[in-house]
Amino acid sequence: MAITDIKAFAHLTATDIETLGHELDSVRRSVEQSLGERDAKYIRRTIAAQRALEVAGRAVLFGSRNRWAWITGTALLSVAKIIENMELGHNISHGQWDWMNDPEIHSSSWEWDMTGPSEQWRRAHNYSHHTYTNVLGKDEDLGFGILRMTRDEPWRPLHLVQPVANLILAATFEWGIALHDWSIEKQLSGAPRWQLRSQPNVVFGRKIARQVAKDFVIYPALTGPAFTSTLKANATANLIRNLWAYAVIFCGHFPDGAEKFTIEQLDDETQGEWYLRQMLGSANFQAGPAMAFMSGNLCYQIEHHLFPDLPSNRYPEVAARVRELCDKYDLPYTTGSLGKQYLLAFRTIHKLALPDRFLRRTSDDAPETSSERKFAGITLPAPVTNWTGTEHLHWSIDPATGRRRGLRSALHEAKTVLQEKARHEKEVLREAKRALKEKARHEKEVLREAKRSLKEKAKAERESLRREYRARRAAK
């Protein structure tokens, strides 16, 4: 099952984790204290650039009956929608720029260019997901209610179609997120399901009407004769934005190494343990400056989960310090190329569509879900307390290198043990096959000898009968 004891899984003591938490608090303070005009210029320039791209795209689409105008306008509009969704809407709604006290660039007032209302997304995402990241039964974003992303979730026949559901979700991601957040908002507000004019329903309905009218009625109508081609361009831009947002989100939450946790982990969880859960429950993907910008800097998903309300343009410098802490405490820093991270998530989606009996690994040591139980048999001694009363692990420092030995080392050891076990099983299988071949060869030889013996016996009997026959004839 998922992780129930993060200290045991991370191979850290309570003291280690609290020290790690204090160091991450220090990272936050240093960034907050250095925020200033440079950051304000960054977000204002980003807003200006996004709006310029959108205006340019919509202007070009007036000539969208021309093929190249359609392609150019659609491309400009797609980029504008991606920037608005990822770097602006998502991050502003997280409160990353609230420190500026600019009423236009504030989480309470910004409405993003997506189907779902920003206020519903803020409550569902900022509270449910970022507070209870990857906690089973608490984090509603774990599979978004339609995908089985961990073996801890019981398999149901409906999961057989999740590869198809995944493709539909990717293409309609803004609608999937909107419906998901709307459902959570109704739960949080306690609105009766039968009450059609409840506050969540009214807000949701108004936003849908606004988005549909804007993209599929008003803007296409403004282009006159190019109505149909503009409508198609808007739909295509939305599709491209949906696919990109889906890929970024899935690469940050569902590759191997993004761990899941049981609800027991929340019992008396400290700030340090919360930080550690964010580090272990998220994943990054490698990106240059352009891709990082287009992803809303969510290629730094680990840093985003640690500090969701720090400005995204600061994540690269935060990432360097988080990596240093991971090295210091021997913790894994889960990252990889965009393609690799998505393929790992894609594999999990398809693999977990099947019943557990078709899966080889258990929920304790599967690539997509593991727990402290995966270290059974190789777990090192428990913490001890020295004469000063400080809790420590007498195995935690490698005597050869002087470096800390923590989760990263434990995972390496577990992998080595698993590889050795697989090698042993292969050798056993090879020996069994060799024994079977030898047995089959022996049985063939025995059978051949038996056949030869039978032939000899038959020949001897024929010869005996022949002699007997000759003797009788001679006697006559």
TrEMBL record:
One of its GO terms (cellular component) is membrane. Residues 69-335 form the Fatty acid desaturase domain. It holds the Pfam family FA_desaturase. Residues 436-468 have a biased composition (Basic and acidic residues). Residues 436-476 are annotated as: Disordered. It comes from the Bacteria. One of its GO terms (molecular function) is oxidoreductase activity, acting on paired donors, with oxidation of a pair of donors resulting in the reduction of molecular oxygen to two molecules of water. GO terms for biological process: lipid biosynthetic process. PANTHER family: DELTA(5) FATTY ACID DESATURASE C-RELATED, FATTY ACID DESATURASE 2. This is Acyl-CoA desaturase. It comes from Nocardia cyriacigeorgica.
